Amino acid sequence: MNCSSLAKNLLGLCAILLLTACVSTPPVALSPDVELVKDNALPAPDAPFALRPFDTVAISVFGQPDLSNTVEIGPNGLANVPLLGRVQAGGLLPSDLERVIEDRLRGRFLRDPVVSVVVDRATSRQIVIGGQVRRPGSFAYQNDLDLSRAVALAGGLGEFGKQDDVLVHREVEGIKYIGVYNIGAIQRGNYDDPSIYPGDLIVVGDSPGRRRLLQILQVLPLVTQPLVLIDRASR
């Protein structure tokens, strides 16, 4: 083959590579009943969650550290609030409880109180984490929970956990959404760690490659020199 023919072949190969690089492929294989959403963020639940028995809330009164406390709502829905004693909290939204405490503090104890109520731990509401994690199961929702912290609650990725195959299932207004995430990319700061909400189901995928490698290593003798293997079973 002369230099001219070789140059033409190389140019043709480069053109093919450029064309294939320009063709975008979907990030996941979609079945006919799955629709790819344009927005890359899972929608958050619209309605706030009402407080329930055994939820733990952090109550803060601006400028009054002695009146700020973290309390657990009792089985009867009552919470012990400093100065006020038992206050009905079960069934109320956090914002509603803020107004109740402000109204009861105003005049008797403070002139114009500003109260903040934040759910610290929602024991009555669960998230479920399954798949390739070390401790799969149901876990109480915690305030400001993100995906990385949720996976950590389950002991982290299991031995065969696949970093780039982490699914978050969520239902919002009757629509079931599935978010696909890469824990490794999140830890590297490639994109934000998504928020997790009560009722979410998190599933960590399996890494067949890691599982196959372990099977190979288990049957090998003690390696004292470099080895090259052909894995025909994975074809």
From TrEMBL:
Residues 46-119 form the Polysaccharide export protein N-terminal domain. Residues 1-29 form the signal peptide. Residues 129-174 form the Soluble ligand binding domain. It comes from the Bacteria. The keyword Signal applies. Pfam families: Poly_export (PF02563), SLBB (PF10531). GO terms for molecular function: polysaccharide transmembrane transporter activity. This is Uncharacterized protein. Keywords: Signal. PANTHER family: POLYSACCHARIDE EXPORT PROTEIN GFCE-RELATED. Coiled coil: none annotated.
